[in-house]
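Methods — Computational structure assignment.
A single polypeptide chain was analysed. Its primary sequence is given first, followed by the predicted tertiary structure written as structure tokens.
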Amino acid sequence: MTFTVSPATLQDHPEMVQLVAQAAHDPLSADPLRKAFERPQAHILTCRDEGGALVGYSLYWVVADETDIHGVVVDPNQRRRGIGSRLIQQVIAHAQSKDCAHIGLELRKSNTGALALYRSLGFESVGTRTDSYRLSHEGAVLMRRMLQGKTTGV
């Protein structure tokens, strides 16, 4: 199956809200997600299948020389098909084009699939947080990927 990654528009918002409700363990509500479209530092990419159905999205911020991934959401029925990897690779490419020094993120400690995916894409664990998620009170793993040739922003 072929997937297409492109910048999100406000028209994608209703589908994104539906997707995050079914796919995320600690979903972002509709209002903060909508407000991300208004923030110049926020970037949202969507991934659609051949039929145009939304199968994933990523939300990340680029501020100064840093990129922070705020979420990667993939349809539970479409996981393990390279969608998350494709979205993250696009984030990496955008961060590199903006001369960012690194990309950071945090994710649930129990999300072993995502941990493995991020590690395969060059991210390293740099710390942990306790009680990070409001619904599950689960701890988080902090990860970072340094971008080639960059040493600042650490």
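Note: The chain has one domain: 4-146.
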